[in-house]
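User: Predict structure, ligand 4-nitrophenyl phosphate.
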Amino acid sequence: MIHVLFVCLGNICRSPMAEALFRDLLKKEGLTGKLAVDSAATSSWHIGDPPHQGTLAILKKYNISSEGLVGRKLTKEDFEKFDYIIGMDETNTKDIAKITGRPSHPKIIRLLDLTELKKDVPDPYYTGDFEETYRLVSEGCRALLEKIRKEHHLV
Ligand code: 4NP
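Assistant: Predicted complex:
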């Protein structure tokens, strides 16, 4: 099993959206049993909380299940458990390294560094633009799946 973890600041907007979207992508590609997906926060602010209304509304709009999405904080142990630890912005990737006690590592990746965009996913908690987040996270998730396919010889 390949383990993928999406990480953002609050684990209520961007990373749960990525978790749901990536899981949906796996289902459509027939890869559900091969990969396990989760998400976590670098802060403790929303432990146990459901996703933000904006994220829930976007997932509903695009007919993607939001089942099982609950806020939790990233732990040191997550570093060993997950094969890919995907931050939404540069602050996230720096905080992932701090929390897990690891300096930069190839498994810690900023999502849009896997695309031509090479930029942060803006935080919709502040921008209010969940549609933009959806577009960028979708593009990043497709690129991540291609990388994993190549690295693990999945067809
Ligand atoms: P996220 O967005 O990191 O995409 O989940 C945020 C969610 C909550 C807060 C900030 C950003 N907050 O300040 O509570």
